[in-house]
Amino acid sequence: MRKQIGQFLRTLFHQKQTHQTSRRRLQFDSLEPRRVLTTFGITPQYDVQVTSDIVYRNDAKVGHGTSEGVTNKSLKLDLYKPTGENLPQQLPAAILIHGGGFVGGDKAQSSFVSLSNDFAERGYVTVSINYRLFGDNVPPAKDTPFSDLDERYDTFVAGVEDSFHAIKWVKDSADSLGIDPERIVLGGHSAGGFLSMAAGMFDTQDVNFFSHMQLDVSQLGVTAILDGAGSLQGTEYTIDADDPATFVMHSTDDTVVTIDSAEKIVTELQNDNVSYEFPTITTAGHGLEAKLNTVIDGVKVSDQMFAFFERELDLEALTEPEFNWHNENLPQDVNNDGAVTPVDVLHIINELNTSGSYELPHSKPNSSPFYDVNRDGWITPSDAISVINALNAESHSVEIGLFLTNSNGETISTVSLDKVFYINLTTEDVTAEAAGVFAAYVDLYLPATHLEFAGSASYVSPFINGQSGTANSAGELDEWGAFAGIEKTGAGEMVMSRIPVRAIRTGPVLVLMDSADDRPLHDVLLYDRESPVEPVDVYYESLGFEILAN
Where are the beta strands (DSSP E) in 265-417? Predict the structure, then answer.
């Protein structure tokens, strides 16, 4: 925020004659009338449950200079909560502040009851607040060069403080009320519009200049502001590029708060590239409902306002159905362990082998993997290949591969049902130096629905030391590998070991590998490198093939 707060306070209650300036006009075609009739945040479609007189702060100081002395006053709000079917899990909020020149007005006055219902019927959890007025005899604000500008100066400061406390109450209540704390509209009319601009745009340094309030306002930002004929002279000096989007609603014939106030605000919003709209209203005077009901080119100003907030708060995102089968944080991490490994592919392949491709139900059990990698609502082989492509995208120091041979040692690409064949484990140093792989260990995963181990692994020289590999009926070969001897193995692919496997069901299969778990005992090691090769620097090849009927 800019810190010309002095100019803001100096001109707080000063009004000037109207003058003309450019105004941003609504592009009415963008409202799409049919969309206005059906969109969350725009269409009135919910019932409203009202709870009155909820205390949002109980320590508001009043009674300064009276015989009773300073006491605490409880400030209250009325809560308007939307109810009904098809409500999003999280809802936007609206905090509304009545007008009255800082000397009168009430949260339950008819115009604010109507406005609160209008917001709630469109899906906003809405609160209409009371705040301290001139007759409450609030204690003095901080002594500044501007303290004597108007007898209501201290009341203005108190109103800003109360507005921040209302924002805090809404944010503190976000979980219990189902509010998204990042989607809050702060709005009001006349004095309430001014307080909305002040609390919505003041930062910590601004507040500390004139207020004794002990409240961290840096955490009390809002997303959008409704300024209804409250943008008094000087507020523009608090506007900066990171301020909330603002809907400015003012009539050119307003004799209470003249139009030049709003026009200066709009100029500053334009200069700082803050999103805003400023409909041209000419015959509504100072009345709130008259402005909201004004029709411009066939569209009510209230509809324009709700369309503006719907866009600025991105309410469409709240209504998108949650799809639990897709890992939003890391799509290829199917088992949600924080890393993308061949095991993630294995989860998909096993499910495809068991059930084939199918459309996923809307609700995902907590224990189920995130099968839908490409977020199309189905589990298909394309989800598996998405993970495989992600695994292959990195450059590596070591490649560990697999290939098939028959009982005669001949390389094959398909196998026959009920026949025994061999899965061969290879390794290769692919660094520029290529001194060779000294040790390599993996965890191997077979689809147990189609394959079973048919014996123990054998090892190929020079990888005859530290032999390891424990198979189980679930298709896992744990800690499979060995290490070589003194002589460097050098460049090129070398066979380390092979294990006999039997095909027990026809169909396509995918065999996967992942890093061994028992580290450092089973680290991958290179000659001429002192540190082990990290799993992320190893390419673990997958092996796909077909099991044919005899």
Answer: 276-277, 295-296, 299-300, 358-359, 378-379, 398-405, 411-412, 414-416
Residue 19: per-residue pLDDT? 33
CB-CB contact of 510 with 498 (8 Å): no
pLDDT at 457: 96
The stretches in the chain having pLDDT less than 70 are 1-38, 231-237, 320-323, 393-394
Residue 81 phi, psi dihedral angles, 5° rounding: -115, 125
Between CA 62 and CA 323 the distance in angstroms is: 51
- Rounded to whole angstroms, the Cα distance separating 525 from 481 reads 12
Check residue 18 and give its pLDDT: 34
- pTM, whole model, 2 decimals? 0.58
Beta strand extents in 244-341 (DSSP E only): 245-249, 276-277, 295-296, 299-300
Non-local CB neighbours of 394 within 8 Å, separated by 6+ positions: 536, 539
438 near 484, Cβ under 8 Å? yes
Domains for the chain: give ranges and CATH numbers: 5-319 (3.40.50.1820), 398-548 (2.60.40.680)
The strand pair at 125-129 and 71-83 is best described as: antiparallel
Q: CA 242, CA 264: separation in Å to the nearest integer?
A: 18
Q: How many angstroms separate the CA atoms of 344 and 370, rounded? A: 9
- DSSP codes of every residue in 216-234: -GGG---SEEEEES---TT
- Summarised one tens digit per residue, pLDDT across range 233-249 is 544 457 888 899 999 99
